[in-house]
Design goal:
The protein has seven helices and eight strands. Helix 1 (17-28) links the parallel strand 1 (10-13) and strand 2. By secondary structure, the protein is of the alpha/beta class. The strands form three sheets. Strands 1-2-8 form a three-stranded parallel β-sheet, covered by helices on one side. It has a three-stranded antiparallel β-sheet with strand order 4-6-5. Helix 1 packs parallel to helix 7 (153-166). The longest helix is centred in the middle third of the chain and has 16 residues, at 99-114. It has helices at residues 17-28, 46-49, 61-75, 77-81, 99-114, 124-130, 153-166, and strands at 10-13, 34-38, 53-54, 92-96, 120-123, 141-145, 149-150, 170-173.
């Protein structure tokens, strides 16, 4: 594969949603020229194998903040990229089957609340009201954040891909580095 340029200031490895969003923001900040490389095709990795969950309930402050920014980005995604990823903020529920797991979820809840998000700790009865038909004896409680949600990953990836291309980012799909072109026998080169 021949690249359009001989030199790049930034190379992003992975053309999934994280790699493409990183390249998009770097390009908007004027960090180019930028190359995104991926050994597969668009959505061939984790971005194409996930259920599209978008959640802000994480165990580190930095991840909660990044996820909160992602929710804001997905809310304006259609206007910014011209693609509809069908982002629906229908909430995200984590369940606990026992006391120690509920204690862990409470610690996550406390961190998420400290970041200004309206996380809720639910007892088994509240879980049953939120999810009719759940085996109420299978859980002791959980945490719920109404502003979390779900989207379709494919239009999200494609939209950001088109966005980086408009900003002049080069994307090399099916990329194999020289180092990966070793004999299949496993013998050293």
């Amino acid at each position: 594969m021949t690249l359009p340029r001989r030199e790049y200031r930034v190379v992003v490895v992975g053309a999934g949603i994280l790699g493409l969003f990183s390249a998009y923001h770097l390009a908007r900040a004027g960090a180019g020229p930028i190359l995104v490389v991926d050994r597969g095709f668009l959505s061939s990795g984790a971005s194409g194998r996930n259920g599209g969950g978008v959640r802000q309930q994480w165990e580190t402050r930095a991840t909660v903040r990044l996820a909160r920014e992602a929710v804001a980005a997905y809310r304006r995604f259609g206007r910014e990229f011209g693609y509809n990823p069908w982002f629906r903020q229908s909430g995200y529920l984590f369940l606990a089957e026992n006391g120690p797991e509920l204690d862990r979820l409470r610690r996550v809840h406390d961190l998420v609340r400290s970041e200004g998000l309206a996380s809720e700790v639910l007892d088994a009865g509240a879980v049953a009201r939120l999810v009719p038909g759940i085996a109420s004896d299978a859980v002791v409680g959980g945490t719920y954040l109404r502003s979390d949600g779900v989207l379709y990953p494919f239009p999200a990836v494609w939209g950001v891909y088109e966005g980086v291309r408009r900003l002049g980012v080069d994307v090399a799909l099916g990329w194999r580095s020289r180092a990966s072109k070793r004999p299949a026998t496993g013998s050293p080169v």
